[in-house]
């Protein structure tokens, strides 16, 4: 499924980049410096200086649709909304506690906060000091 989702995302990006380039090219078309007469045949909504052609608009909408579809298909499965259900599953299952990649799989996303890597372990340092004192008194 990931391959299909990535292909849809690439297709959407290609369509969107082509639509943006087409809109930019359309904006560079020479236009008349004279204002249109009030009795013009074309209504104001169809004036090419104001609106983009229909094919560029449709290509932009199709590319946005393809990008949204690709992002939805490539997203991981949803996690439970209730905190108690998520925490209960985490406590019951040892495999759920493993957190392999960021945003993928189960696991505890707050594991780094609970372990506090890089902080000094004061209690461990106090135990080591107490053992050192006990050891130095016995010798």
Automatic annotation (TrEMBL):
<keyword id="KW-0812">Transmembrane</keyword>
<keyword id="KW-1133">Transmembrane helix</keyword>
<dbReference type="Pfam" id="PF10270">
    <property type="entry name" value="MMgT"/>
</dbReference>
<protein>
    <recommendedName>
        <fullName>Magnesium transporter</fullName>
    </recommendedName>
</protein>
<dbReference type="InterPro" id="IPR018937">
    <property type="entry name" value="MMgT"/>
</dbReference>
<dbReference type="GO" id="GO:0034975">
    <property type="term" value="P:protein folding in endoplasmic reticulum"/>
</dbReference>
<dbReference type="GO" id="GO:0072546">
    <property type="term" value="C:EMC complex"/>
</dbReference>
<comment type="similarity">
    <text>Belongs to the membrane magnesium transporter (TC 1.A.67) family.</text>
</comment>
<dbReference type="InterPro" id="IPR053279">
    <property type="entry name" value="EMC_subunit"/>
</dbReference>
<keyword id="KW-0472">Membrane</keyword>
<feature type="transmembrane region" description="Helical">
    <location>
        <begin position="56"/>
        <end position="74"/>
    </location>
</feature>
<feature type="transmembrane region" description="Helical">
    <location>
        <begin position="7"/>
        <end position="24"/>
    </location>
</feature>
């Amino acid at each position: 499924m990931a391959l299909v989702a990535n292909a849809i995302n690439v297709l959407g990006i290609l369509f969107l980049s082509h639509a943006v380039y087409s809109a930019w090219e359309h904006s560079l078309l020479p236009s008349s410096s004279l204002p249109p007469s009030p009795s013009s045949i074309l209504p104001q909504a169809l004036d090419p200086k104001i609106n983009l052609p229909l094919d560029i608009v449709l290509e932009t909408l199709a590319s946005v649709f393809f990008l949204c579809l690709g992002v939805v298909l490539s997203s991981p499965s949803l996690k439970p909304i209730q905190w108690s259900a998520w925490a209960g599953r985490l406590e019951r299952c040892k495999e759920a506690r493993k957190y392999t990649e960021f945003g993928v799989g189960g696991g505890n996303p707050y594991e780094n906060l609970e372990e506090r890597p890089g902080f000094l372990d004061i209690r461990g340092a106090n135990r080591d000091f107490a053992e050192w004192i006990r050891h130095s008194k016995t010798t």
